[in-house]
Design a protein that fits this description.
The structure holds two protein chains of two kinds.
Chain A: H1 3-9, H2 13-26, H3 34-57, H4 61-69, H5 74-85, H6 87-102, H7 106-111, H8 120-131, H9 136-140
Chain B: H1 5-33, H2 53-61, H3 64-96, H4 99-103
Classes of the chains: A mainly alpha, B mainly alpha.
Amino acid sequence: MFIVFILGLTLPLEGIIVPLYYQIRDMGLLNTRWALILPLIGLFMPFAVTWMRAHFVNMPADLSEAARVDGANMWQLFWRIHVPLSIPAISSLGILLFLWTWNQFLLAVVLVSDPEQRTMAGALGAFQGSGGRISHCCVRGRC
Amino acid sequence: MIVSRSEKFLGRVLLVLLMAVTIVPFVSLFITALHPPGTYPPGLTWPEEPHWDNFLLAFQSANMFALLQSSVLIELAVVPVSILIATLAGFALGHLRPPAVARCSSCSSSG
């Protein structure tokens, strides 16, 4: 079942960007921040689920059994025992996702044309495109 | 692990070289930004009068605060939601072993 997620890791963003554009347009979300937020959450899922699964696979089952013996239901088992144990995995995942969202360029440029709604990388790309060449305008932010 | 002295020395020299290769472009960017606007300064030449206000002007003309705010909003929406969904899913797939995973005999899994 998790093979589906691993196959998702092989999917290139450039391959699905065109259908994604049509889908976002039909949802009426073009040129808003949601056009970036929703596809990004979906695109991060293969990597993030594989990452967290790799962590949880290494947790000993005896731990959960002991918790169940002590009377924990599923929710308590998850929130009080496993989540505190997985804080290192969660924080490294958070750092990676933060970095990839901040640097997201292709998605921002295709789906959002208002520079103020994009990510920083996408908005600064507008400076570059307007001149057609990298000049001191791009480096300074104005001409 | 016992490492010979020459290996240690070579390793450190290589590290310093790689650090320089990584840092020099950033230093060059910084120094270029200090030059008066409109010029094309060659290489790493420190300007006669550094224009520290270039940074302020760039911030204002590129509307950096709005961009930063936009990026931060997108981050705040994407990262917590992704982590929450992925942790729940990873817990289910990795620890609870739903029957679909257990029955899959051709799947190569680590446990």
